[in-house]
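User: Run a structure prediction on this.
Assistant: Running it now.
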Amino acid sequence: MAKKIMIVDDDNGILYTIKHGLEEPDKTYDVITAESGRKCLELLENNNIPDLILLDILMPDISGWEIYQKIKQNDLWKSIPIVFLTARTDQIAKKAGGFLGDDYIEKPFTIPQLKERIDRVLKK
């Protein structure tokens, strides 16, 4: 059965690239996209619960850090693994992302690298 992955990013190009990269060619993943933090929370509230969330840190409406906190405060969602995806490469973001999240991936990345990291987190 395919693992359900939610991608939360305000860049439609990133959403499209990751969705198609993860779903093709072997259908290992079923990808849900959310173009904002608000959309992510709306999907979760509508019981669209993924096996893992790829979460951008820098978004205009609600930051990835804020979404992370909201997810972890909810008993129904707090066990969902979160992998931070970001163009932010400063030491504070790296340390916080690595400490809080299940993984931290800097943009740019390749789809094979992303699949490897997702698989590693899901096996934990």
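The mean pLDDT is 90.
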